[in-house]
Specification:
alpha/beta; Alpha-D-Glucose-1,6-Bisphosphate, Chain A, domain 3; TATA-Binding Protein; 3 domains; 7-stranded mixed sheet; 5-stranded antiparallel sheet; 15 helices; globular
Length: 467
């Protein structure tokens, strides 16, 4: 099966052989490497403290116990949040004055996957250089466990989902009173993970009537957990049947957010960030950042509010780095990830929901009408499965050379894979950080054009690769 070590953490499938998958041995090994990295980096005369939380996937309790007790064996205290979300752990780390955090989740990946997502003392993802250090420690197995008198302790704290909600509701641009007055009805698909607990709680605090769909946190995902249109037929139908104002879909660790309009159509995962940014920029003008695979619509909205837009390499840590460099007011990724620094530098579906509701309550529009008011771009998201024989870097270098001096190309970036901009459309091709695939994202002014551009480049890649 698969074990992937990347900027997004240590991610793999459960079971199989050590070193090829995320086995119990690998979970202990990488937890040991992370704990050792912290001890090497933070040389203080006290026990270190790490916050740990997990999503509801089936392997969660097993991986959780292994990781917690590995840190205890290194003499590190653990604040155990239990069932939680990625943004909740990110919020908890600085509130606990912890030295780091680990989220046990494979995000949008199917149930056979799990992962260790690693945080620093700010509750932000580690840099690529820090991740490389951890991999070196893991490869060398340079671990030094403590004696029985200096073992770490475990402190259970299951209050942080409520604390996270309180922190979101306290944001100056969140107005629960105006939302309550609207008496909204919203359908929530929590994909049977922790989003099925925290999103309904947030909505109820804001006076919203909630219709729950797949909100039992048992880890049995009822559909592919990536919040894409083809996976969301049930909620689209239920929004219409319930005559709801809109629907909300999150992934298993609640850092990706998608909306369903009142007519049962997708609001568009790319447009989650666009709509929230439109509201935030209308109140606090400034700059924005998203990644190279995200829609041009954010650029358009930013320029409407007289701000400056820039694109980073794919990966939350890259977006955050560029946001800090450009003093961005809001940013994120086109996969429905909202990063609002007013609370923390991490993708956060709760922040997205609360800001969107506040914005919608101030508009005399349905969600479908709001979506229609934004620039119309259409995306196609495709992928090619990788095999060990494929030299992805060489394939992309060949493609880059082909288009570098092509007269139809308006710009070309190799910051992350290769992105080729044409006059009215673009294509971005890159090796995934989280799956053994090449991603091919395209955007154009019609769906047919976006799909056609994607098919063209899928065929070009296959020709170059000889497959």
């Amino acid at each position: 099966m698969t074990l992937i070590k990347s900027i997004s953490g240590i991610r793999g499938t459960i079971g199989g052989k050590v070193g090829d998958n995320l086995t119990p041995v690998d979970a202990v090994k990488f937890a040991s490497a992370y704990g050792t990295f912290l001890k090497n980096s933070i040389q203080v005369n006290r026990k270190l403290k790490v916050v740990i939380g997990r999503d509801a996937r089936i392997s969660g309790p097993m991986i959780h116990n292994l990781v917690v007790n590995t840190l205890v064996g290194l003499g590190i205290d653990v604040v155990d949040l239990g069932l939680s979300t990625t943004p909740t752990v990110e919020v908890a780390v600085p509130l606990e004055n912890a030295d780091g955090g680990i989220i046990l989740t494979a995000s949008h990946n199917p149930k056979q996957w799990n992962a260790l997502k690693l945080l620093n003392a700010k509750g932000e993802f580690l840099s690529g250089a820090e991740g490389a250090q951890i991999l070196e420690i893991a490869d060398a197995e340079a671990f030094d466990f403590v004696d029985v008198d200096t073992l770490g302790e475990v402190f259970v704290n299951d209050s942080y989902m409520d604390i996270h909600i309180d922190e979101v509701l306290a944001l100056p641009l969140v107005n629960s009173d105006v939302v309550k007055a609207k008496k909204y009805k919203v359908v929530v698909d929590g994909v049977n993970s922790s989003g099925g607990i925290i999103i309904p709680k947030l909505l109820e605090e804001m006076g919203v009537e909630v219709v729950k769909l797949y909100c039992e946190p048992n880890g049995h995902f009822p559909h592919n957990p990536e919040p894409l249109k083809e996976h969301l037929t049930d909620i689209c139908n239920l929004v219409v049947a319930e005559q709801a104002d809109f629907g909300i879909v999150v992934d298993p660790d609640v850092d990706r957010l998608a909306f369903i309009s009142n007519d049962g159509e997708m609001f568009g995962e790319e447009y989650t960030l666009v709509a929230v940014a439109d509201y935030v920029l209308s109140k606090t003008p400034g700059n924005t950042v998203s990644n190279l695979s995200s829609s041009r619509a954010l650029r358009d909205i930013t320029e409407k509010h007289n701000g400056s837009y820039q694109a980073s390499a794919v990966g939350e840590v890259n977006v955050v780095e560029l946001m800090k460099k450009t003093n961005a007011i809001i940013g994120g990724e086109g996969n429905g990830g909202i990063i609002y620094p007013e609370l923390h530098y991490g993708r956060d579906s709760l922040v997205g929901v609360a800001l969107f509701l506040t914005y919608l309550a101030g508009q005399d529009k349905t969600v479908a009408e709001l979506r229609a008011s934004y620039p119309h771009y259409f995306m196609s998201k495709n992928k090619i499965e990788l095999t060990p024989q494929l030299d992805v870097d060489a394939i992309l270098e060949t493609l880059t050379a082909t288009y570098k001096n092509d007269s139809s190309t308006s710009s070309l970036s190799t910051i992350d894979g290769v992105k080729i901009d044409f006059a009215n459309e673009w294509v971005h091709l890159r090796k995934s950080n989280t799956e053994p695939i090449i991603r091919i994202y395209t955007e154009a002014s019609t769906q047919n054009d976006a799909d056609g551009l994607a098919l063209r480049f899928v065929n070009e890649l296959k020709t170059i690769a000889g497959i």
